[in-house]
Amino acid sequence: MGKTSIEKLFSRLAGHGVKAGDFIWAAPDLVYVHDVLGPMMLSSYKKLGNPKINYTGKVIFVYDHIFPPKDSASANNIRNMLGFASGNNIESIPMGEGIEHTLLIERGAIEPGMFVVGSDSHTVTAGANGAFGAGLGSTDLACLLASGTTWFMVPETMVINMTGNLPRFSTGKDVILNIISKIGVDGANYMSMEFHPSSDTRLQLDDRLAIANMTVEAGAKTCILPPDRRTDAYDSIIWDEDAVYRSSLDLNMSEIRPSVAVPYSPGNVKDVRDVAGTKVDQVYLGNCSNGTFSDLQQAAEVFRKNPVHEGVTAIIVPATRKIYARALDAGLIKTFIDAGCTVSPPTCGACAGLHMGVLARDEVCISNTNRNFRGRMGDPGSMVYLANSYVAAAAAVEGKIVDPTEVF
Fold first, then answer.
1. What is the pLDDT of residue 288?
2. pTM, rounded to two decimals
3. What residues does each domain of the chain span?
4. Where does 259-407 sit in CATH, by number?
């Protein structure tokens, strides 16, 4: 009987053959931690007695969730993490470089075929580059650093067969929203989502980032999509033709239209036409899945010669410093400024209701971020709609949700 990709990966980590449902102890290839949950991990580590770090893989600290710091508490959190990192030979990525999930793929820290764990649930984004990523709790991470390994249950796998290509104004965001609308927010609970594009299906990295990032919103433990560049490590975990899957889903990409997840769940997905006319107060573009250069290009295409609607706040957040610089060189930042947008440095910011765009009571925001739970971006009385960058930018121009295929 053949193996799925995750069964092959965990067989490598365990040092022997494993199958879905087996429990193993293993050491991931990379651990990365951010500035909000990192302090909780350090607190757990202190309770263990601050033992010597026995994990021998790579550890990276990233300061992105509340950067620049909004208050003394967030500043002290970063300071404490910097102190721990310097005393334990842990790499600290310079502050302001960008949002961890996009940044680590951009920097080459997450390579095809790797298994990485992080303090953030969106560590699943590693799947965009042919790696497996999974979020762990702060206590689990502390114990992993102290002991060198941690336990995993080998997930069952859902396979998503993809044919065709996306039409204009549809993006990777619409792919994952379409999937969640079909299977629900628990449809892939503790599964690995394994994506099988057909030979004629084209998915650039930026689209794959959007897809992988929100697999956790379908309940997935991890996911994997074929990368642009294959490595020996990736080739060693390519699924077998006779692998056994828990479930499967077929997607015709050419039929996927711009979609919107309405409050208060990423699973409340509707065609954009069904919510057209909904007035918005804020548009927020940029996060760990959709702050890519492609997202900025899509937004700039809409904002070029089209100003932000009176009474609407539009915030643009490039995911990394490099993406910001590239957008600056390409003239995209000037387009945003001329249209009346506010351009932020790379940060998780308002996506998690932390700072730089937090919503007030009764405010309506449309965003290309990944969660729209009640209170996610601010006041519990606010409302967040999730959509692709075309749809979000078009709403900023029109002052209401519109179908970009009909307006632009």
1. 92
2. 0.97
3. 5-254, 259-407
4. 3.30.499.10
